[in-house]
C-alpha cells in the first residue's frame, strides 16, 4: 500500500505504469460519478432542490398581489412581469440552507460512507493510492455542486417560462438585457454559487476522513455551514468576516449589475481555493495516516 | 514516508496563507517616494487637477461609535433607516464620470443597487429594491455644469473640496507621509483644527501625485486612531467610460415618478437635517461651528420614530444623538442643534438661542 501511494505523490510523468495509473484515475472518477448519480438519494436531493423554485412560481401565480408588497426574498416582486426571475429567487432561497444541506450530505458521505459500508479497503486494494481516491471523491462532490446549482436554476427558469411571460431582463442597475444575455448571466451566477460551495465540500471531505459514521460527518458539515453564516451576520465579528467561507455566498448579485463587478467573484474564488487547499491538505494528512479497518 | 511527513502540507499551507495575508497588505503600504511638497503646493496641485473623466470604486466606512446594526433588517425603504445605514458599516459605490454633465453613481448593496444617472439635463434615480425610478430635469443653463446629485455620497474629490473650502482657514496644514491609494502614489494633506473644543482630531486628504485628484478623505476623531469616516477609491481608472453607461431608460414595469420642480435640496431619499432649507442658523465658523435648525414637520417626524428613541439618550434639555465626531441635540422645544463639539457646547448654544 505505502509503496503505491509514495509513487503516486511523486506525480509520475507518462511512462508505462504511470499511464496505466492515470487511466485508472479517470476510470475511478467515472465510476464514482456514475455511482453518485445512480443513487436514489442523489436524485431525491436534486429533485427537492428543483421543487423549491417551482413552488415559488406556483405560489406567486396563485397570489400575484402578495408578492408586490416588497417583502420576501430579493427579486420576488419581479416574477410576475418576467418568469426568468424565478430562477434568481430560487437561488436566493436555496443558497443559505438547502444547497449547503445537500452538499454537506454528499461531501460528508465521501469517505465515511465507504468506511461504514465496508467498501473502503476494497477501493484501496486497487493500486490507486489514497490521495488519488481523495481527489476522485472531491471531484465527485464538486460535480454534485454543479448539478445541485443547475437543477435550481434550470427548474426555476422552466417553471417561470411556463407560468409567466418571458422577456428582456432588468438588472440591478436598472439596465435591460436581452433574454440571450440573461442566460449567460444565469450561467455565471450558477458558476459563482458552484464555486462558493467548493470550500464547504473540502471541509466535508476532511470531516468525512475523521469518522466511520457518515451521518456524523454530514451533520457536522451542515452545522459548520450554518455557524459560518451566523458568525457572518454578527457585526461585532466583522474582523473575521472576510475569512468565513460563506462570506461571499450572496455576492452573485454583483454579476447582475451593469457593468459586471468581478471583485466578489475573484475574492470568492480565492477564498474557496484557500479552504480547498487547507482542508484538502488536512484530509490528505488524515487519510494517508489512517488505519483502514473496514 | 513517516507520519509527520504526511501531515506536513496540512501544517505548512495555513502558515503560507497567513504569510501571504500579512505580506500583501504590507507591500501595498510600502513606502512611496515622492518629491517633497509644502502644504501650499499640495493644495495647488489639488486645485490644478483637470481630471474630467474617470471611473472607479469608492469604499466608505464609518466607525462613529454607534451601535452596529444588523444590515439585513434595514432596507432603504424608510428614510431614517437609509441615513442610519450610511452612518454604520462599509458601503461600496461605483462612479463613472465623463465630463461634468455625464455622471453615474451606483451604490452597491447585497442583491440590490441604487443608481443615480445624469446624462445632460436628465437625472434618473433608480432603486432596484422597489423597482422605482425618479426623473428630474436639470435647468438648461446648468446643462454643462456639475450639479449636486440627489441621494448620493460625495466622491472623495467633492468631499475634499468642501473640507478645504470650509475649513482651511481654521486648520493647521501639514503634509504627511506619501502613500499608495488605489494603486496610485499620493500626497497626504493633513488638516488639524486650531480650535480645541471640536471633536474632530484631524482630517486627511490623499491627493494623487500625478493628477492632483483627491483619492481619499479620512476624518479622525480626537483620541481615536482609526478614522471615524473614510471615503476613498479602492480602484480607479482615468479612461473615459463608455457613453452607453449614461444612456438610462427606465426598465419595463418600473414605477416612474416625475419630479417637476428639480431643486437641489429636493432629494427623494434621506437628506441630513443640515440641508433642510428654512430657519437654519450657524453659530461660529470652522470646525466648532454649531448649526441650529428650527422645529418643523420634518424634525417632528424624525423625533417621533421608534429608532430615534433607541439611538438617542436623555440629557438635560432634550435628547442627544452622540457619535465620535458629531453631536446632535434635539431640544425639548423641537429644535435641532448639531456640531462637531461636545454636548455642553451644544447645550450652551441651545440655551443662548432660546432666550
Automatic annotation (TrEMBL), chain A:
TM annotation in the entry: 43-63, 83-107, 138-164, 184-206, 213-231, 269-288
Species in which this protein is naturally found: Galbitalea soli
Keywords: Membrane, Transmembrane, Transmembrane helix
Name of this chain's protein: ABC transporter permease
One Pfam family cited in the UniProt record for this chain: ABC2_membrane_2
UniProtKB/TrEMBL annotation, chain B:
Coiled-coil intervals, chain numbering: none
Family annotation (InterPro entries): LolA/LolB/LppX (IPR029046), MucB/RseB_N (IPR033434), Sporulation_related (IPR052944)
Low complexity composition bias: residue spans: 266-279
UniProt cross-references to Gene3D superfamilies, sorted A to Z: Lipoprotein localisation LolA/LolB/LppX
Transmembrane segments: none
Region of interest called Disordered, as start-end residue ranges on this chain: 255-283
Domain MucB/RseB N-terminal: 94-224
UniProt-listed PANTHER family: SPORULATION PROTEIN YDCC
Name of protein: DUF2092 domain-containing protein
Species whose genome carries this gene: Galbitalea soli
Amino acid at each position: 500500500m505505502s509503496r503505491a501511494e509514495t509513487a503516486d505523490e511523486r506525480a509520475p510523468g507518462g511512462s508505462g505504469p504511470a499511464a496505466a495509473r492515470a487511466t485508472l484515475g479517470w476510470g475511478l472518477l467515472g465510476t464514482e460519478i456514475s455511482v453518485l448519480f445512480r443513487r436514489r438519494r442523489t436524485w431525491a436531493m436534486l429533485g427537492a432542490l428543483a421543487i423549491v423554485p417551482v413552488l415559488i412560481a406556483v405560489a406567486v401565480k396563485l397570489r400575484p398581489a402578495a408578492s408586490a408588497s416588497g417583502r420576501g426574498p430579493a427579486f420576488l416582486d419581479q416574477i410576475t412581469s418576467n418568469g426568468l426571475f424565478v430562477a434568481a429567487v430560487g437561488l436566493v432561497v436555496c443558497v443559505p440552507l438547502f444547497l449547503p444541506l445537500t452538499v454537506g450530505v454528499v461531501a460528508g458521505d465521501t469517505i465515511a460512507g465507504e468506511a461504514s459500508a465496508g467498501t473502503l479497503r476494497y477501493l484501496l486494494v486497487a493500486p490507486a493510492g489514497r490521495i488519488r481516491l481523495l481527489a476522485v471523491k472531491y471531484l465527485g462532490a464538486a460535480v454534485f455542486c454543479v448539478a445541485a446549482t443547475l437543477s435550481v436554476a434550470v427548474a426555476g427558469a422552466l417553471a417561470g417560462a411556463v407560468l409567466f411571460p418571458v422577456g428582456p431582463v432588468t438588472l440591478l442597475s436598472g439596465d435591460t438585457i436581452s433574454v440571450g444575455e440573461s442566460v449567460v448571466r444565469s450561467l455565471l451566477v450558477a458558476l459563482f454559487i458552484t464555486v462558493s460551495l467548493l470550500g464547504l465540500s473540502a471541509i466535508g471531505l476532511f470531516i468525512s476522513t475523521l469518522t466511520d459514521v457518515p451521518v456524523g460527518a454530514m451533520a457536522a458539515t451542515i452545522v459548520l455551514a450554518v455557524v459560518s453564516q451566523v458568525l457572518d451576520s454578527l457585526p461585532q465579528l466583522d474582523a473575521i468576516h472576510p475569512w468565513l467561507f460563506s462570506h461571499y455566498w450572496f455576492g452573485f448579485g454583483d454579476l447582475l449589475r451593469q457593468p459586471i463587478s468581478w471583485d466578489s467573484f475573484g475574492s470568492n474564488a480565492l477564498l474557496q481555493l484557500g479552504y480547498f487547499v487547507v482542508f484538502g491538505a488536512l484530509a490528505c494528512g488524515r487519510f494517508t495516516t489512517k488505519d483502514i479497518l473496514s | 514516508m513517516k507520519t509527520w511527513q504526511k501531515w506536513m502540507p496540512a501544517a505548512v499551507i495555513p502558515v503560507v496563507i497567513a504569510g501571504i495575508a500579512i505580506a500583501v497588505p504590507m507591500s501595498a503600504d510600502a513606502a512611496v517616494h515622492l518629491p517633497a511638497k509644502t502644504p501650499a503646493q499640495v493644495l495647488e496641485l489639488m486645485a490644478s487637477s483637470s481630471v474630467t473623466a474617470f471611473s472607479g470604486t469608492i469604499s466608505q466606512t464609518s466607525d462613529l461609535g454607534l451601535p452596529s446594526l444588523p444590515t439585513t433588517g434595514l432596507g432603504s425603504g424608510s428614510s431614517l433607516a437609509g441615513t442610519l445605514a450610511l452612518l454604520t458599516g462599509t458601503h461600496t459605490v461605483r462612479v463613472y464620470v465623463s465630463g461634468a454633465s455625464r455622471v453615474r453613481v451606483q451604490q452597491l448593496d447585497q442583491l440590490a443597487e441604487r443608481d443615480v444617472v445624469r446624462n445632460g439635463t436628465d437625472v434618473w434615480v433608480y432603486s432596484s429594491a422597489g423597482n422605482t425610478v425618479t426623473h428630474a430635469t436639470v435647468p438648461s443653463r446648468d446643462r454643462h455644469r456639475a450639479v449636486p446629485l440627489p441621494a448620493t455620497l460625495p466622491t472623495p474629490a467633492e468631499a475634499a473640496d468642501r473640507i478645504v473650502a470650509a475649513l482651511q482657514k481654521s486648520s493647521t496644514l501639514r503634509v504627511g507621509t506619501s502613500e499608495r491609494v488605489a494603486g496610485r502614489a499620493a500626497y497626504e494633506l493633513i488638516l488639524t483644527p486650531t480650535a480645541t473644543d471640536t471633536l474632530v482630531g484631524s482630517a486627511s486628504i490623499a491627493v494623487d501625485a500625478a493628477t492632483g485628484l483627491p483619492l481619499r478623505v479620512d476624518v479622525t476623531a480626537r483620541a481615536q486612531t482609526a478614522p471615524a469616516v473614510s471615503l476613498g477609491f479602492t480602484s480607479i481608472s482615468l479612461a473615459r467610460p463608455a457613453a452607453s453607461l449614461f444612456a438610462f431608460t427606465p426598465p419595463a414595469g418600473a414605477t416612474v415618478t416625475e419630479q417637476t420642480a428639480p431643486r437641489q435640496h429636493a432629494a427623494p431619499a434621506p437628506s441630513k437635517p443640515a440641508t433642510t432649507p428654512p430657519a437654519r442658523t450657524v453659530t461660529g465658523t470652522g470646525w466648532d461651528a454649531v448649526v441650529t435648525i428650527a422645529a418643523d414637520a420634518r424634525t417632528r417626524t424624525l423625533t417621533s420614530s421608534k429608532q430615534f428613541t433607541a439611538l438617542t439618550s436623555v440629557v438635560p434639555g432634550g435628547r442627544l444623538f452622540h457619535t465620535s465626531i458629531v453631536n446632535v441635540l434635539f431640544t425639548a422645544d423641537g429644535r435641532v442643534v448639531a456640531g462637531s463639539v461636545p454636548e455642553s457646547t451644544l447645550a450652551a448654544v441651545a440655551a443662548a438661542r432660546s432666550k
